[in-house]
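Input.
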Amino acid sequence: MEVEVKLRLPHSAAHQSLSSVLSPFLRRTHFQHNVFFDGANSELSALRAVLRLRFYGEDPQTAERCVSSLKAKAILVNGVSRVEEDEEDVDPFVGREIWANPNLIGLSDSRVLKRVKEEFGVKDESGYVCLGGFKNVRGVYEWKGLTLELDETLFDFGTLYEIECESSEPDKAKEMIEELLKDNGIPYSCSKMSKFAIFRSGELPL
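Output.
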């Protein structure tokens, strides 16, 4: 079970302000390309599940890392997300082949991709589809014992700004992050939708 604090920043100015405040604690920056898949008959989404391939690098065609992720039964309440998640690194070349031909999912030896076929009943004759995806620029900061992830998510229909923090004590982490934001006059709100849900809706939440 992945448990994360998710707080939304309303605009680029808030994102820039927080980035400046956290700059002494920056450890790395990730350029991510997220691509999503489902069965052709919506077998995964019907069970509140989603399959994602995430490529790390400015260009997914030359990315040196790719991670498959199967998420299910996501709940996001009061800025805290809880979701069942299973992740596995896959060869980036294999990931790019799957992106080009989603039906290769059913032929993969990957543990996570085998789960998609075996647990969600996707039939070989109907196959898989690529739903598309979006880019994300993520700054990773180590701050007061927390790993903070500051995201700038680039959808075709707009840009979302968000800060996330995975924690076994989400209420405590959320309180610390909110205090940081308030002390620096940075506006925020609790996130109400996952990035994938926003992507599928086709518009930024109000």
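DSSP finds five helices and nine strands in the chain.
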